[in-house]
Amino acid sequence: MKKTYLVTGGAGFIGSNFIHYMLQKYQDISIINVDKLTYAGNMENLAEFENDPRHCFVHADICDKDAMKKVMAEHNIDYIVNFAAESHVDRSISNPEIFVQTNVLGTVSLLNCAKQAWQTGEDTFKEGVKYLQVSTDEVYGSLGAEGYFEETTPICPHSPYSSSKASADLFVKAYFDTYKFPVNITRCSNNYGPFQFPEKLIPLIMNNTLQHKELPVYGDGMQVRDWLFVEDHCKAIDMVLNNGRLGEVYNIGGHNERPNIFIVKTIIEYIRQNVDSSVSEDLIHHVTDRKGHDRRYGIDPAKIKAELGWFPETPFEVGIKKTLKWYLDHKDWMAHVTSGSYQEYYKKMYGDQ
Ligand code: NAD
Ligand code: TYD
To answer: For position 303, which CATH number holds?
Structure first.
């Protein structure tokens, strides 16, 4: 039977990669993509599907109950995948409130709309439907030198961003525990790949190096992130939608821990060898550390591997080269997002919707 997916935040980094992944993998699906188009949402990410009848874009805020009720009423939604979020830790430190608005209140509002649309009786819902909350390993807080985040690790967020994501997770859990509303939560480590907004480490360092600008490394640069190629995240979400046990949390990560300074030096070296032999590590500038900076993230993916057979297909050394090459091949995309002119593209294609 043909499935209909409501993807929120589908014009952002991971959401747009997910839409690419799903429309390439499945011929017979439709995707309703709801996005508010904040600074991080870019319809250029989905240019390939402009005329594809399987992709329908709705310009809306997940907090807008009427708009979301209309979407649920007009489309026979089987799955909701909630990517929509404010996602940048530094922005959450300077302006926490919008993180509560979108990440917490937006999630609760979406849960409520879906519950109303899918409910068939007391504690019963339409057959086969599911709400998947795309969460993050950051809800677990920070690790020391040893150990990994498991699904049973207590939630202990530090930044306003991770606190808002943790709050959202607790509401999703509450909908399962209270109403038996069918949910899954996925908690993934740091993603990298095409279409990432250049406020995040990898595209920012790439862009600055190409322009011989200073490379801001927070503190000593020895903070560790567990990097996963975005396509492997998309594959995991698809598997959890299909076979994840209702009410369960699944951690997603591929044991690719790297200190930030290693990532920065890898990018410089790639550009030095492939583009511009004059760039060097002299561009690195250690700047004041981020407030409350988590020292290390590391995911234990044993549960999703054992239950669903997921494994990461792209080794870091392959994925990072693929990613850096993608940014080099899409200099227009980078120029549009850094100048803000990508918003003009949307107006040209979609008018004032
Ligand atoms: P992103 O910032 O690139 O994209 C977010 C998208 O959500 C944008 O298109 C934006 O326009 C949209 N959006 C924001 N507020 C909205 C609202 N109120 N209504 C509708 N749309 C709205 O983020 P991303 O990196 O693609 O992250 C997607 C999700 O994955 C987030 O929930 C994030 O917490 C989670 N996550 C991200 C990572 C990562 O490494 N980037 C890792 C694990 C989990
Ligand atoms: P980021 O890409 O913002 O992801 P997150 O904070 O969600 O992990 O940052 C990744 C790491 O890189 C994080 O430890 C902060 C660090 N960082 C820098 O050192 N300099 C920068 O300019 C940025 C954006 C991040």
So the answer is: 3.40.50.720
